[in-house]
TrEMBL record:
Cofactors: a divalent metal cation; Co(2+); Fe(2+); Zn(2+)
CDD domains in alphabetical order: RPE
Cofactor binding, per record: Binds 1 divalent metal cation per subunit.
The protein's annotated pathway: Carbohydrate degradation; pentose phosphate pathway; D-xylulose 5-phosphate from D-ribulose 5-phosphate (non-oxidative stage): step 1/1
Amino-acid positions noted as binding substrate in the UniProt annotation, renumbered to this chain: 10, 69, 145-148, 176, 196-197
Protein name according to UniProt: Ribulose-phosphate 3-epimerase
């Protein structure tokens, strides 16, 4: 199927003490999925939350599509608990992983879709050998670890290369994406858009989400 435009707010910079309410608000304002940033303090120099919190969130929000962005050194360790927590898409970084195909297989056997992510310094060709097994590829447009950083437009050739070689794959971008940088991402061929600060802090969340989706749709046609 041809890629669809989807906007997935990252709740990293939301009020995490009110995660369920903040998430529900984003969904009510038109979010297509939720992007949940999981960090282990090792792969990235920051900590967020893990599967117990995701499971609690799932208890409050039954139907939304959950992606966990696993910024961790051992993604294989969290597959079962995240599947049990009701995660739909399990996206992990290939950089620290020895046998990426094996982890992909374990994720899919647990019933989740699999996403493969690369940091800014990682060449996009590194993903090429895994395209057969990946459901989604994620091109980071900031150094992972923190929300609210500036968008790296020099990552766009990676997105262009992927869209050119794999016209039907879901390509996600993450980091510094918002109404001001969406055009650049859409033009390059991204169709799954993670947006944290720009959506969570927008005076009108619905308008920000709708506008970004329209720009992406325009370029997908
Ligand atoms: C960075 C995270 C991103 C990021 C998105 O490590 O993976 O999801 O927080 O937030 P903004 O859109 O504020 O960059
Ligand atoms: Zn993320």
């Amino acid at each position: 199927m041809a890629p669809q435009a989807k906007i997935g707010p990252s709740i990293l910079n939301a009020d995490l003490a009110n995660l369920a309410a903040e998430s529900q608000k984003l969904l009510d304002n038109g979010a297509d999925y939720l992007h949940l940033d999981v960090m282990d303090g090792n792969f990235v120099p920051n900590l967020t939350f893990g599967h117990p919190m995701v499971k609690c969130l799932r208890n409050h929000i039954k139907n939304a599509y959950f992606e966990t962005h696993m910024m961790v050194n051992s993604p294989e360790q969290w597959i079962e608990p995240m599947a049990d927590a009701g995660v739909n898409l399990y996206t992990f970084h290939i950089e620290p992983v020895k046998d990426v195909c094996n982890v992909c297989r374990l994720v899919q056997e647990s019933g989740m879709k699999v996403g493969l992510a690369i940091k800014p310094a990682t060449k996009v060709e590194e993903l090429a050998r895994y395209m057969e097994v990946a459901d989604v590829v994620l091109v980071m447009t900031v150094e992972p670890g923190f929300g609210g950083q500036s968008f790296m437009a020099d990552m766009m050739p990676k997105v262009e290369w992927l869209r050119c070689n794999y016209p039907n794959i879901d390509i996600e971008v993450d980091g510094g994406v918002g109404p001001k940088t969406i055009e650049c991402c859409a033009k390059s061929g991204a169709n799954m858009i993670v947006s944290g600060t720009a959506v969570v802090g927008a005076p009108d969340q619905r308008q920000a989400i709708t506008q970004m989706r329209e720009v992406v749709q325009r370029y997908l046609k």
